[in-house]
């Protein structure tokens, strides 16, 4: 499991070098939503192993988001997100063997879309749109992303310490400003 967390951490660092932190968070939510959608399709096709693999992928991304929270900067919002991520991870795993798993995963998917769209509003990105309407039903209640100015100014996207561009623990090459790849850095909790 440590190698998976290492991969997730490496993905955060890679994202930090190329996009704004809030955009990276939205892209990670998109990857989680995709994994949940794929798990639903696999379960509907009775492909149980594939469903499990996709559930594990979604849980790993959520666990990585949780581990990247900086409680010193995020305060109460970081605490709330920690509880949300734990709840999603637990619900993904506990729902797996249930007879109504598809309904449960759709509900998780729809509520995660709302969270994703809140971050997309902060990042100035568009709300979530299903790639193929036949793959997933329309979300139950996704709401609409508000313009950047209307979002809560108390949310500090830099609470995701692994995603901030100028985080002091990420050494950068002075010419290219790309992260210098040295020994793995420990994840601060």
TrEMBL record:
<dbReference type="InterPro" id="IPR036584">
    <property type="entry name" value="FliS_sf"/>
</dbReference>
<keyword id="KW-0963">Cytoplasm</keyword>
<dbReference type="InterPro" id="IPR003713">
    <property type="entry name" value="FliS"/>
</dbReference>
<feature type="region of interest" description="Disordered">
    <location>
        <begin position="167"/>
        <end position="189"/>
    </location>
</feature>
<protein>
    <recommendedName>
        <fullName>Flagellar protein FliS</fullName>
    </recommendedName>
</protein>
<dbReference type="GO" id="GO:0044780">
    <property type="term" value="P:bacterial-type flagellum assembly"/>
</dbReference>
<keyword id="KW-1005">Bacterial flagellum biogenesis</keyword>
<dbReference type="GO" id="GO:0071973">
    <property type="term" value="P:bacterial-type flagellum-dependent cell motility"/>
</dbReference>
<dbReference type="Pfam" id="PF02561">
    <property type="entry name" value="FliS"/>
</dbReference>
<comment type="similarity">
    <text>Belongs to the FliS family.</text>
</comment>
<dbReference type="GO" id="GO:0005829">
    <property type="term" value="C:cytosol"/>
</dbReference>
<keyword id="KW-0143">Chaperone</keyword>
């Amino acid at each position: 499991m440590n190698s998976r967390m290492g991969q997730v951490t490496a993905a955060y660092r890679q994202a930090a070098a190329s996009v704004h932190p809030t955009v990276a968070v939205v892209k990670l939510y998109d990857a989680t939503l995709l994994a949940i959608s794929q798990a639903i399709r696999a379960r509907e096709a009775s492909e149980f192993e594939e469903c499990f693999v996709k559930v594990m992928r979604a849980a790993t991304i959520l666990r990585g988001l949780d581990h990247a929270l900086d409680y010193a900067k995020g305060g109460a919002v970081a605490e709330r997100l920690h509880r949300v991520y734990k709840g999603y991870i637990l619900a993904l795993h506990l729902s797996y063997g249930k007879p109504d798993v598809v309904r449960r995963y759709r509900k998780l998917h729809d509520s995660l879309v709302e969270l994703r769209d809140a971050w997309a509003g902060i990042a100035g990105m568009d709300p979530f749109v299903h790639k193929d309407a036949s793959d997933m039903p329309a979300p139950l209640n996704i709401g609409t992303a508000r313009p950047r100015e209307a979002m809560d100014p108390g949310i500090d996207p830099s609470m995701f310490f692994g995603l901030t561009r100028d985080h002091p623990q990420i050494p950068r090459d002075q010419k290219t400003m790309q992260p210098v790849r040295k020994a793995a850095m420990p994840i601060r909790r």
